[in-house]
Structures are given as structure tokens and as C-alpha cells.
């Protein structure tokens, strides 16, 4: 049954019973039983023409609930490839209200100087991943965040400057606020609706990272794009970031 779900995740169009049975080399009777179970469980939907299409893969509801299970599954091998290519620490993070939650890290084989605690939740404007997500958002979203997160005038100015610089480069380049001598590159990942909800970050010693900035930034951009493509293809998106934007609007209205 998992093979069937994974197969649906690799195709872009709906499939009929005969297509499924042929692709998975199984009797139509067995395929039909599995299809019915997957429809009943909400993983597939059946069209009026008798075809079946993917609704979501296992882990989607963990994203809705904040667990981000499917995102971590999809992103981990891509993050590992980016770490191998860049030679720096890789970090996956996602929006969590006004904060950015660090979900997963992959460490390089060479000297490690950046080993962040997974589960940490700095404010969006305090982390390169959060700034990358705001950079990829509409100006109105940034304005709502500034008001809802109650940033000071200085913090708001710094955020806008960081976003402006990042938009010119296509990625966020930032010195670490936690570890001296460490810098990072971060790029946003869009969800199935195109809204930025996660980010890939590569971090390492400032001198080494800057000297290899093209290689590191290319690895981060490529990894974020690949994760975004998988998220869209498999319909693994989250309304959490859209809910966060709505919460920022409500919070701002309450305090006016």
C-alpha cells in the first residue's frame, strides 16, 4: 500500500485502476481493494470518471498539527546533498507563529563550528531562515508581522534593510547572532499554494563561507527549489503560515 502511495506521489495526473495495477504489477482485484482503503482514509480521491488522484501523503496532518513530519521526510535527503555540496552545516526550519522553528540539521564531515539546537524557536526577524521567509512574502505580510510581533522602530528598520539586501541577492546572507565568526545563507521554501513557509540554511565559518559564497548560495537555492517542487507535486502544503498571517492581522487589529 505504501508503494501505491509513493507511486501516486511521482505522477502529476490522475490514474485509473488499470494504470495502477500495471504500474505496480499486481492483480486489479488487489489494486482495487487498496485504492478503496486509501480513498476511505483520505489519501486518494476518486473522480467521476473512475480515476484516482493523490490528496496527500502520510505526514500531511502532522504538518497541519505542527509536527512537519512530511516536510522533514522530503527535505532531509535534499538537505544532506546540499551539505555535501557546500561543505557546511545544513538546517531546515519552518514558520511557527511569530517564530521560526528549527526542524532538522545535517552536519558536514569537515570542521563543525555551527551545531544549533533543533527545536529552538527564535523570532522570525532574529534568524536568517525567518528573514528568508519574510523576504519571499508580500510587503503587506512583512508590515503585519512587524506590527503583530511588536518590533521596535530599530528592529523594523533592520528587518526591512535585511529583506531589501536579500531580494537583490536572491538569498539571505547573515552573520550568526549566537556564534561569533559564523555566517549563513538562507533561502525560503514555498508550500503547495506558493506561500513561503519553510527555509533551507547553510552555515559555517565566515571566512570559509564567504570565500565559497557562490557554491554555498547555489546549493541553498537549489535545495530550497527542489523541496518546494516536491511539496507542490505531492500536495503537501500547510495552512499554518496562512493561519499565522491571519493571526498577525487579528493581533494588529486588536491593538489598534
Automatic annotation (TrEMBL):
SUPFAM superfamilies: GAF domain-like, Winged helix' DNA-binding domain. The keyword Repeat does not apply. SMART domains: HTH_ICLR. Residues 53-237 form the IclR-ED domain. InterPro entries: GAF-like_dom_sf (IPR029016), HTH_MetabolicPath_Reg (IPR050707), Tscrpt_reg_IclR_C (IPR014757), Tscrpt_reg_IclR_N (IPR005471), WH-like_DNA-bd_sf (IPR036388), WH_DNA-bd_sf (IPR036390). The keyword Transcription regulation applies. One of its GO terms (molecular function) is DNA-binding transcription factor activity. It comes from the Bacteria. GO terms for biological process: negative regulation of DNA-templated transcription. PANTHER family: HELIX-TURN-HELIX TRANSCRIPTIONAL REGULATOR, ICLR FAMILY (PTHR30136), HTH-TYPE TRANSCRIPTIONAL REGULATOR RV1719 (PTHR30136:SF35). This is IclR-ED domain-containing protein. It comes from Aureimonas altamirensis.
